[in-house]
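>> received
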Amino acid sequence: MFAQVPLFPEQASTAASRVDGLFFFLVGVSAFISILIASLIIVFAVKFRRRASNTETKRITGSTKLELFWTGIPCILALVMFVWGAKIYVFISRPPDDASEIYVVAKQWMWKLQHPEGQREINELHIPVNRPVKLILTSEDVIHDFFVPAFRVKVDVVPGRFVHAWFQATKPGRYHLFCSQYCGTNHSGMIGTVVVMEPDEYRRWLTSRAEGSLALEGRKLFLKYQCVSCHSANANARAPVLEGLYNQPVALEGGGSVIADETYLRESIVLPDAKIVAGWRPIMPGFQGQVSEEELVKLIAFIKALGPGQTPPRVDSAKQPAAKPESSNSGEKTSGDKPADNKSKASKTPDDNPSSDSSTQKQP
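>> returned
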């Protein structure tokens, strides 16, 4: 009924009706109590007004029943509000296990969104209808606020950490996305659109905009920054194994433990000395200011997807070529325009040719 009132945004998610129900209950209770108190004040002011200067005011000794009534009823109403609100809070703060994860990076003054399949968007988010979507949000500069009124989703996006939100859209269409936290001069221009699509249409959209997945891009960064030099997951490793680490407890030096979620992984990259893993020396350099938030998102996506035996090998430990390049003939020059080394030619066997068994040759 209230969804048709222009003063209220459309209900387009599974959480919208729950939030609206509690909101209207709070408004109704507040309005009822306000009207009741105002009416009683007027009635008592008229009924018990002073009629003459010599009239003696009657002494009121109190009423236990009345005091229990006006204490008990508000207490019951407050408990109802608390339990109702707590149930909604638990619902909107715990995304389903099968929710699709989308990373959101806020920046003055735009929203940068990255799908796990690799698709990237700015100020626009495409999602399928009737599928839960989990947002993992962070900011590059100041505090922003991700707000989709039709979904009743609103979360502060804080720099230096990850926050989470989720929703499940119930109606295809286009819905407004706002930043509802003043973030600078062009705050009013930090807007976007959430496009809810039918499943088949969404699959076509994904196919038409296919790129490298976040995990694949993160793997490239993992090798680019030489992380594998220490996190090699073998006997020569100088840092903890990252395979299967995500969402697992990590024992810390000095006692205690922490769950390896997105916030912990981010902190371990930019400020590795903040929480030192038990049994390992703090030799990792900090990457604060050297790695952008978008690169952090990709690295974390790679670590989350890293399973047993999937750590990429170091370049110097990778499998060597099976055989040396074929030597030049006696009449040819080497790359330095010098005659080929007679000593090396003498060491060749009569069967030394491209078809010979390379396993008997000395590795380069």
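>> Helices lie at 16-47, 64-93, 199-208, 214-224, 262-270, 293-305, 342-346.
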